[in-house]
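Progress narrative, work stream C.
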Amino acid sequence: MTAGGSRGFDARVAHPARVYDYWLGGKDNFEADRIAGEAAIAAYPQIRSSARANRAFLARTVRYLAADQGLRQFLDLGTGLPTANNTHEIAQSVAPDSRIVYVDNDPLVLSHARALLNSSPEGVTAYLDADLRDTDHILELAAGTLDFSQPVAIMLLAILHYIPDTREAQRIVARLVSALPPGSYVTISHAASDISPDEMAEMIRRMNEHLAEGNHVGRSRDVVAQFFDGLDLIEPGVVKVTDWRPASELEARAATSLWGGVGRKP
């Protein structure tokens, strides 16, 4: 779930992917991650619900792209630790021949990559150990699995808020979009600065005390919407992730601190 930082492994320092795993109730985390996770929960108790809502948003958007729009290629950046309903599981349940490339730079995610590579026989999954800021390198390597002359879905879930410089984050998205053919899609979820703003600001402050880079930021809905410049936003646009085509009333009512949206390259 990180966009930068040391490539080494240090269990004494909290890592976003492992903190997120803790919020989801996973077991791939260490004491430093649990301390950071609890500090965030104390500031914003709904963060666990928000993490679950993000996973549900991932499931709905991948299913929409695979089932409704016929996408068969996915580039998932900031993969995080394997959990239920990973991108390849959802896409290949719709279309077994789907091809998925995962990208992350957390050594623990790399050690679990075999769980992400359990593809259907008809499809392909690959894992790249790379930093989001190395966008050209990612695209070059991903082209070994994905055909960029055909539509690709870029998944940027809960990752851009670890690029604190907004212009840099915009450049990364623009570079990814430039490599896509028409008919491709970009899915983004992003921590909000204007949902429960006081609690979120304190949560982010506490998280940054524990992260090696201290680079977590929130952004307003208007700023998140700018990541979709040049794309056709799919209804209902940039909304709380729980409001993006919820599958049930339970999903719609869940607490969240994330904006989300899906855009199509015309």
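Work stream C, second folded protein:
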Amino acid sequence: MRAIPREDVPVVIADGDLEVRLLDQEGTSVGFVRLPAGADLRPATKGLQDDLCPCPHWGYMLKGRVRMHTTEGHQDFVAGEAFYWAPGHAPEALEDSEYVDFSPTDEFAKVVEHITSGAEEPT
């Protein structure tokens, strides 16, 4: 058994109050994410398939409200909810938000690389 404190997880994306921390655990990335109100990651996902994140995520909303945009519209997720985000989404923080998510490491690493290697910065 193992506990993973947030502060022990490396930061892979940092932009002001936006922060993504990721740690690979046997092929699954454990992520701690903070999005300030107004952060919209749709510009950062441009260039990926359908201009959206192609990686699935399972997790739990700790704080705030996040709107997940898809090709079919959007859905809001709020603190206290567990979630599954299928491939084909991009988050927008409607409030200061924090969540923990679990993703396939190989798939999410490609998304992080795209976001950090010259794609447009989140707004």
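Residues 105-116 form the longest helix (12 residues). No further action is required on this item.
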